[in-house]
Amino acid sequence: MPIQVLPPQVAAKIAAGEVVERPASVVKESIENAIDAGARSIRIEVRDGGRRLMRIGDDGCGIPAGEVPLAFARHATSKLTQIEDLEHLTTLGFRGEALASIAAVSRVTLVSRVCDPKPTAGQPPSGAAPVTPGTQIQLEGGQQLALGAQGAPPGTTVTIENLFYNVPARLKFLKAPATEAGYVHRVVAAYAMAYPEIRFSLILDQRVALQTSGNGNLYDVLIEVMGLDTARQMVALGEEPAPPAIRVTGYAGLPSLHRAQRDQLVFFVNRRWVQERSLATAVAQAYQTLLPIGRHPVAVVNLFLDPAEVDVNVHPTKSEVKFRNQPAVFAAVQKAVRRCVVSAAGPPQVAIGFRPGVSQPAGDAGHFTGHAEEWRRLSQLGLEAQRTLPGEPGTAVAIPPLRVVGQLAQTYIIAEGPDGLYLVDQHAAHERILYEQLQAGAASQLAAQQLLNPATLELSPAQAAVLEAEAGALARIGFDIEPFGGFTYRLRSIPEILQDSDPAAALSDILADLADQGVPLARRSDERLMVTVCKRAAVKAGRTLAVPEMQALIHRLEQCSAPRTCPHGRPTMVQLSTAQLAREFGRA
Ligand code: ADP
Ligand code: MG
Questions:
Q1: Helices and strands (H and E) in the chain: how many
Q2: Domains of the chain (ranges plus CATH)?
Q3: Would the CB of 28 count as within 6 Å of ligand 1?
Q4: Measured from the CA of 61, which atom of ligand 1 is nearest?
Q5: What is the pTM of this model?
């Protein structure tokens, strides 16, 4: 066959195939358009799995009458004008392909009316608002059938009928209506979770299949989407104390919650729903040793990062992204989920490897069962109330009263609790204690220790830059510092919790540490500083502690509100339960 340029209609159908794979793709693109239009409420109606009809209505900004036909032209968009715009994209759409693609393979009717019409020049500002009727357009197979004025409420409604009527191959490939409806449900549920402030209704064959309130609370959406039983077993991903360049929010299931399939792992990158294998792997790793083999966790994870760090233009469906710093994103997700799950589910249990001769029930991973037991035990104790309330960041489970037994490797405190042996990391535990002490003090006035002899210190340019940038935060926490010419500074007071340290060395270390962490977000700089100060002030590993010192430390840890993790998110303790010990010794 000689090479020839395809007729536009054929080319359009081929191109449409990339964007519109099945009814759920149409719903996805239309929801994205509604969100981009600033809708507060989106209604999706689907009949016969989307083959017969899909109608997506929104109360967004609408399309001006003159632009309605243009919306259906290929590569016509109001969201981007030059390639550089991709670097700071704030809309979900940008390719200008969806409406053209949908129209190429179905019959589309769009009715739109712009909201809040602004008085045009020349019109008197007073008097009745100008009457702007809506516009209706109808296309079939990409050809315009009708265009005209039409009364309508503000917003846009797109109706898609006879999907793939002219692409028999695609039509054949569609699954049963119930299956296609299931895909649609999944799309709507995902966007409802990504946008809790938008009211979503999904009507499948005239039955309400999903309805969210639009009250802005993700937990309420989780209850609607996953059911109360599942939502109850999920905890909020707490925000990092330090200001991360990659912010991770959302909810993750307790280890007691797991599924045979991976489909309840949902990810949003800058509020875009993405299918990313590496993110799923990161979450799976966060649950390592906590879930039974072959089971998958449940999580809804929101990632926020500088749009310039993400390439969204990878695939026509825009559901794949590329991260500029993939390892950093992976680590951020894994850490955030791990921290939340560990602090909510209790201390990690010591995983004792299987040894011949020690009987272990089949399929019992030991540490996993221990976790479930621990969780049940805490719930009996009425501690469940401490679990995260809807909408709150992850809070932690209290620790039981512990009796100090001794110290191990000058690093870990050995303690006995109601359910076995606990090893407490002295440094991590002390960091947690100091951090909560500082936070409590920050609400009023932090105690500062005046130095009898002001200390003079010479800083590196990087340290001095941090000092200048964080001067306010440093002062609030108790540092009184004055310039002394060049990179030399004079230190008059330090936070009280650093009183046992060499003042100049402590400040120098803290500034160096902050310089290593990069540029902070102003809002979080106090907290980041607190974490750094605590790290410097906390008792180091390698120091021998007397029993009363250890008792005091454990006692203060028991009073912490999140005693199970240090401010960096590492566990403060691991546990070896009595049940595990019994098993190890063949007593079970
Ligand atoms: P894109 O979203 O990539 O810009 P689309 O083909 O999905 O491309 O839409 C083309 C244009 O039509 C959009 O840029 C937008 O201006 C307009 N549009 C589509 N749907 C809506 C809607 N629901 N409300 C307002 N404008 C819309
Ligand atoms: Mg679009």
A1: 17, 22
A2: 8-115+134-216 (3.30.565.10), 233-344 (3.30.230.10), 348-354+363-588 (3.30.1540.20)
A3: no
A4: 25
A5: 0.63
